[in-house]
Amino acid sequence: MGRTLMVDLHGMFRSDREIAKTVRSALFRAAGQKLESVELIPGKGSGTLRRRVLAILEQPHLVKYYRRVETDPGNEGRILVYL
């Protein structure tokens, strides 16, 4: 997988604001560096953090920064965002 920015979100499960800020920052940084993708790692757990991250990515002001979002079929604790 070409140039990818990987962001581990495990420790941010309590603060929606911190999650949103980290996801936004990762997208902006990856776009600025012209990377191919961002790999967000919410972890497996109950899936709550994964659902929060996917909801954040659906916000209109972020959608314009990427082409598509995939959850890794082999690892449900990983979200791939292709720029």
Automatic annotation (TrEMBL):
One Pfam family name is: Smr
* Gene3D superfamilies xref list: 3.30.1370.110
- Domain Smr positions: 7-83
User: Matching PROSITE patterns, A to Z?
Assistant: SMR
Name the record gives this protein: Smr/MutS family protein
